[in-house]
Amino acid sequence: MxxxxxxxxxxxxxxxxxxxxxxxxxxxxxxxxxxxEIRARIPLTPPGKAESMDRIFSDFKNIILPGITHWQHPxxxxxxxxxxxxxxxxxxxxxxxxxxxxxxxxxSPAAAELEDAVLEWLRRMLGLPEGMAGVIxxxxxxxxxxxxxxxxxxxxxxxxxxxxxKRPLIVYASQETHSSIEKGVKIAGFGRENLRLxxxxxxxxxxxxxxxxxxxxxxxxxxxxxxVVATLGTTSxxxxxxxxxxxxxxxxxGLWLHVDAAYAGTAAILPEKxxxxxxxxxxxxxxxxxxxxxxxxxxxxxxxxxxxxWLIRTFEIHPEYLKTGADPYVKNFRDxxxxxxxxxxxxxxxxxxxxxxxxxxxxxxxxxxxxxxLFKGWVEKTPNFELMAPVHFGLVSFRLNxxxxxxxxxxxxxxxxxxxxxxxxxxxxxxxxxxxxxxxMVIGQRATEERHVRAAWDMIKSISAKLLK
Length: 469
Description:
CATH architecture of the domain at 100-343: 3-Layer(aba) Sandwich
Shape: globular
Strand content: 5-15%
Distance between the termini: 61 Å
Helix content: 40-55%
Structural class: alpha/beta
CATH topology of the domain at 100-343: Aspartate Aminotransferase, domain 2
Number of strands: 12
């Protein structure tokens, strides 16, 4: 494809993207294809001769698009949002065109220095402690693994990087913690048996006294506590672990404190939500995802550390072919994580923050929180509906409950969810809270307005009424 043809199709693709953004609401949120249906339409062997872009783009629309679940649909109420925005898509387009591999400063100085600057902007926007330094990772799972590896090295004075683990190290997290913690514990060599899941309270937040008990018990058994993971906005219910108390315990026992705020961290740009970061001075590391609730398309995860030296010493390696004369004076972000190769993720984030401004981003997040409180009120006021957890951000955990036993309630609510999703107008997912099947209504998609939330509630009530007849 020469540049003339590139221009032709580039204009066509941008027009299609703009129309998609305008009309995505008319599509079913969740793909309706059956397993294997897309694969069956793709030839077993690659084409021997070049195919025209007209044919390729036609196949995209006719074969691929029916198998897409539309995360940018205003009826998206599943999992958590993974928002994009027109400006972030444009930033991503430029990133793809430049095609830079931003592993060290010298391979693209602007990429390294813009990342440094934009992460400082974010630090100020959230009110994170002075001196915390940031780096962009791909996802929170990777950032958490970086934290666990740093905790491992600090606990062993970097011996484990050289000789491997010689004794068990213990990691602590809430029983409501994200599955990436368990995965990271396994990958980092702690071993799943050395992950302690601490009980949670009535609001699904970690109980600090139980954390202290677990640490003391392990110490008495001759084990070595190394890390505690606190969560601000758990996946099932957006519970907020009590960071001040957990931080004091971690500091007293010399544990690395990692804070997972993958979804809810964005809320801290609101002054009225900044309470979630009370106690942040005790954090050793912190992660949140602008690619969830800050209009920056996937992937873009902001990871902060109190002492960059611990992170760098954990990951740095200096082969001759990567050494440059600038090394003593710059940040080479390849030493700040697992990857050597790094995308220019900072560009789209820079575009978003500048295009919306802090006030625009605050208004965006604040409206979703308002809509969640509105939905919460409807649940609380309507017979046969039950609120299952406090509503701190944009998630409402609820269920239909007419008094039947738990097994029957599970069937009832699963049926409700399946029928709602089958309409194509909205998409909800579920979780289990204290073993109770719970529906999750997430309000956080860029295009979601009050009319969409009201329409979703009307559908929920209508289908529920039929199920209860």
